[in-house]
Amino acid sequence: MPESPLAARAAVGDLVGAQPAAWDLAGELPIALLRKLGAQGLLCAEVPQSFGGLGATGQDNGEFTAYVGSLDSSLRSIMTSQGIAAAAVRRFGDREQRKRYLAELTSGKLAAVGFSEPGAGSELAGMGTRLTADGEEFILTGRKMWVTGAGYADYLMIVALHEDAAAAVMVPTDSAGLRIEKIPDPLGCRAAGHCDVYFDDVRLPASAVLGGGGQSLPLLFTTALSYGRMSIAWGCVGILRACLQTAAAHAKKRAQAGKVLADHQLVQRHLAELLVAERSATAVCEQASRAWDANSAEMVVSAVLAKHFAAGSAARAAGSAVQVLASAGAQDGHVVARAFRDAKCMELIEGTNEICQLVLAQHALSSVN
Ligand SMILES: Cc1cc2nc3c(=O)[nH]c(=O)nc-3n(C[C@H](O)[C@H](O)[C@H](O)COP(=O)(O)OP(=O)(O)OC[C@H]3O[C@@H](n4cnc5c(N)ncnc54)[C@H](O)[C@@H]3O)c2cc1C
Do 140 and 129 form a contact (C-beta atoms < 8 A)? Predict the structure, then answer.
């Protein structure tokens, strides 16, 4: 990052402060904070400087994402969605679209991303949302569900069927025919603005359709999901770091049976497992970011592996952290209680555990004769 990673972390740390517990309980992030971070380019830090962004490497953006993830997974989820939208604009937009949308996404406008539908979760190929040409314009019809950040967004980047292929389209959230309904009381990332979205013949100009449409659906998914998986994986590293730090600090202070928890060997086992999980997930994410930065052929599978490993590690480790704190952490809003709920959700999104395992198994099988 041109603005050093440390400076970026300090700026976000100051802005976030001790607010995440209250955000979690209220189920809402302050929109002014999102716009402020967005205007500094921090929500999609890999956008090149030539398009108004910070031009961060995947590695630097990853470490920054982990830091935000250690503070608040709802805020990190917003970063992930914004980053996916920016990555799709970079990959599929024409020059004018890149100029316009990347400038907006680095100056305070917010974007969310919609793939999932009631009939298309793990099997995205089953989607029914359709983009149809109508003279010079396009009409979008269908429904998306669980769109992270839609409650705050200025744009929804929607993937739809288009002719006999697919398209990614930037839909302004004030479009006529668009309805956004907040999902009440989600299990985790409670302040991330998850919404169901309905498109009832939403009319859009041709300039909203990235690259004019006609892209392959698998390529659209792979591009968007690879960025999203990297971002979630690093966010889970942040969850692991927060859990390790909180559990270790508590174990050193709280005494039972005549000694601090840290002197009970069974508590030490939890701390050892937390440390192993944090270090291993970091290593896997670093490897994936190196592949991402080198644009290597390993990039796609490395992102799946990183997301799968980091999410599973974070879900298990958050359980250990709650165990170490026991009643001291068993309250909504507490850092380990949030981690426990948030990390579980990370095993569901951008490819469930099972879908990631299928991809990884295929990779393993393809490497032997
Ligand atoms: C907190 C949260 C945030 C989200 N944010 C977004 C977002 O921003 N944008 C968006 O588009 N979507 C979002 N989603 C939706 C998410 O991507 C889907 O929930 C996910 O893809 C799984 O789909 P599903 O819930 O329909 O589960 P299903 O596909 O119905 O799966 C149910 C279970 O069956 C298993 N399963 C399904 N198919 C197979 C198979 N072939 N082999 C083995 N097991 C299988 C799954 O692994 C899972 O355990 C979000 C969801 C959550 C919970």
Answer: yes
